[in-house]
Input
Amino acid sequence: MYDPPAYLWAITIAGVAAIAATTCIVLYGGAERAGLGRRRAALLAGAAAIVLGGWLTATAVIAGHGWYHTLPWLPVAAAGFLGTLLALSRIPVVARALAAPGVASRLELPHTPRVAGVAFLLYMALGHLPALFALPAGRATSPPVSPRRWSRAGSRRAPAAAPSCGSTRSA
Output
C-alpha cells in the first residue's frame, strides 16, 4: 500500500472538507433567503453536514477495504450518492432553499476548493500517478470558464450550448 507524504493527505482532506463546508454554507444562505428563518436554515445546513460527512466516511471505509477495486462498486457508489442527493432535493424545505433567489449562482462556490486537485499533480511529480490520470485531475483545479470565453473571438454572443464544465455566469 502506498503511503503518501503528510502534506498530500492534508491537501486532499482539506479540499474535501472545504467542499462539504461551502455546500452547507450555501444551503444555509439559501434557506435564509427563502424565508425559512435561522433555526430551520441551521437545521438544513446541519443535516447536509451529516449527509456529506456520512458519505465521506462511508466512501473512506469502502476505499480502505479495497472494495472500489472490484468493477461494480465505484459506479454503484457514485450513482447511489447522486440519486440520494437528487431524492433529498425533493424534500420541500430543501427545494425551497434551492429555489431561493441567487442560490443557483452560489452553488458554484463549493467548486472553488477544487484547487486541492494540485495534489494529483504532486502525486505525479513523485512518480506515483500516471500523467494520463493526474493531468486532467490537476487541470480541474483551474477556475471555471464562463460560456462567453468559449465563444468565438470578437463575438459578444454566447455559444448555443454552454459547456458543462464551466461557470454559468457570463464574463
The two ends are 45 Å apart (CA to CA). The CA atoms of residues 62 and 68 lie 7 Å apart. Helices lie at 6-33, 37-64, 73-88, 92-99, 103-106, 118-125, 131-139, 147-150. Residues 146-153, 158-171 have pLDDT under 50 and may be disordered.
